[in-house]
Amino acid sequence: MFEFEFMRLAFMAGAVVGVLAPVVGFFLVQRQMSLIGDGIGHVAFAGVALGYLIGVSPVWTALLAAVVGPSRSSGCAPGARRPATRRSRSSSTRGSPGASCSSRPRAP
What we know:
Elements (H helix, E strand, L loop, with lengths): L4 H26 L3 H21 L3 H15 L36
Helix pairs in contact: 1-2, 2-3
């Protein structure tokens, strides 16, 4: 089975993912952000499809989509919740619409 190069590479890639995914998942669950990992996975899958469509390496487009996608939607939606910090846990964690997006103007 390991006489083919692609099988050895696939085994190594699976081993790396098998070691790193639980480590990342543990911290996401501890920070109560477990659904973010699922969302990033879906955005990366869209990046793979985009790479195939435009003829670019799907690995690089998936990486680009996984980095750019979540940064574009990081609480910029109206009514998005801001993460609670230690100083503001006693106060409301709900920010005003657009409060966490300095690049977009707020509606009057």
